[in-house]
Write a structure and sequence with these properties.
- Helices cover 37% and strands 22% of the residues.
- The chain is of the alpha/beta class and 416 residues long.
- The chain has two domains: 2-56 and 368-415, Urease, subunit C, domain 1 (Roll); 58-359, Metal-dependent hydrolases (TIM Barrel), CATH 3.20.20.
- Strands 1, 2, 3, 4, 5, 14, 15 and 16 form an eight-stranded mixed sheet that branches. Strands 6-7-8-9 form a four-stranded parallel sheet. Strands 10-11-12-13 form a four-stranded parallel sheet.
- A hairpin with a 2-residue loop joins strand 2 and strand 3 (27-33).
- The protein starts with a strand and ends with a strand.
- The structure holds zinc ion.
């Protein structure tokens, strides 16, 4: 089948006017101007999307779909620890029904907004079912938490069991499973150490919230600050359960052997030069969530620096516990204003597609419209796309409402 449209963004190459794609068996076989593909593949059935534009499906590199129902229920705009404390208090009141309906609503929202691949963290396991049912691609990460070192072995055993059941459920889908030690401050050093050991044994992908807030930096390095004074008592702990050695969160993870090219570090707002060097050495990728960072008042990640460092960088929305929508278009638009000229629209669209794919270790399969890649493709209807500034007008105008078609692995999953 040939798909044709007024403009096609391969991402790996400049946009193509009157562009087209040849898709066979779920794989992109050729990309180019309509006239070329019609000449080279005569008799191939062709579907015109008219004035629409074609792009690779978006990659949401960080979210927690099971928390979608928390929209508007937590204090935003105050402080990180106030928000985290409220989430810790609310969490035990959430049950399986909540996680299941939240996950379904979140997964359906992603699909409608043009996301075809997602990195989702789950504590309940509830997000795998809707993602599989809808046919989305991605990685479902089992969350691990726990500050009591005495419980580390049990926590890891439970996580391994959860991983086995997720992997079983994922069979026959486009989903794989991974491990998410939640953050350097929310697991005991012993549990982080056991997670590192599991990751070495299993070689599955991993993701962790890292260097999100100044509070985290103070707590890991000095054992002090609002995490020690306000969050530890909420989980019944009197003192840090890691060795306080003046390390940065990144150096702490490096010491435990958690840094690897299979790891995506989320947020990465507060990294120093030696942290960046560690991340580069170990090939760690990043997933930035600028709107969540803004709502939690944790600061702004120095994205231009990360891009100059040539780190693999994707974009995530985080969950609706710390954001107002799951739209990556909203995330790109916010970032465009936030970085005020220091990051281009083209860089942001690349982060939302190929960058995310690369950060998740999936760039050979997806993220751009190139021959040989899986056919994860979206079409958007945009009324006044400025041909002289295609990326800029795309980022300024695209929204969930613009998406008219979402295809994953060559199958149309959504049509407006
Ligand atoms: Zn998160």
């Amino acid at each position: 089948m040939i798909l044709t449209a007024r403009l096609l963004f391969p991402i790996s190459a400049p946009p193509i006017q009157d562009g087209s794609l040849l898709i066979r068996d779920g794989i992109i076989r050729a990309v180019g101007p309509i006239s070329t593909l019609q000449r080279d593949f005569p008799g191939e059935p062709s579907t015109s999307l008219g004035d629409a534009i074609l792009l690779p499906g978006l990659v949401n590199a960080h979210t927690h779909l099971e928390l979608t129902g928390l929209h508007g229920r937590l204090p935003l705009g105050r402080s990180f620890t106030e928000w985290a404390g409220a989430l810790l208090t609310l969490r035990p009141t959430l049950d399986g029904t909540f996680f299941a309906s939240s996950s379904m609503e979140g997964a359906a929202t992603l699909l409608r907004s043009g996301v075809t691949c997602v990195a989702d963290i789950t504590s309940s396991g509830a997000s795998l079912h809707p993602l599989k049912t809808l046919g989305l691609r991605g990685i479902v990460f089992q969350e691990v938490l726990g500050l009591d070192p005495e419980q580390a072995a049990d926590r890891l055993t439970a996580a391994e069991e959860a991983l086995r059941s997720l992997a079983l459920e994922a069979s026959g889908s486009l989903l794989s499973v991974g491990l998410s030690p939640h953050a350097p401050y929310s697991l005991s050093e012993r549990l982080l150490d056991r997670c590192a050991d599991l990751l070495r044994r299993s070689n599955i992908p991993a993701t962790i919230h890292l260097a999100e807030s100044p509070e985290e930096v103070a707590y890991i390095g000095l054992g002090l600050g609002p995490i020690a004074s306000d969050l530890l008592p909420l989980v019944g702990r009197g003192a840090p359960s890691h060795r306080v050695l003046g390390e940065s969160p990144t150096a702490f993870l490096a010491r435990l052997g958690l840094l690897s090219k299979r790891l995506t570090a989320v947020h990465a707002v507060h990294l120093g030069g030696s942290d960046l060097e560690l991340l580069r050495q170990h090939g760690v990728a990043l997933a930035l969530c600028p709107r969540s960072n803004s709502h939690l008042r944790v600061g702004t990640a120095p994205l231009p620096r990360y891009l100059a460092y040539r780190l693999r960088v994707g974009l995530g929305t985080d969950s609706l516990a710390s954001n107002e929508t799951l739209s990556l278009w909203d995330e790109m638009r916010f970032a465009l204003t936030l970085y005020d000229g220091a990051v281009t629209p083209q860089q942001l669209v690349t982060m939302g597609t190929l960058g995310g794919a690369s950060a998740l270790g999936m760039a050979t399969e997806i993220g751009s419209l190139d021959p040989g890649k899986r056919a994860d493709v979206i079409a958007l209807a945009i009324d006044h796309l400025d041909d002289t500034d295609p990326y800029g007008s795309l980022v300024r105008q695209a929204s969930e409402k613009s998406v008219v078609l979402s295809m994953v692995d060559g199958k149309v999953l959504y049509r407006a």
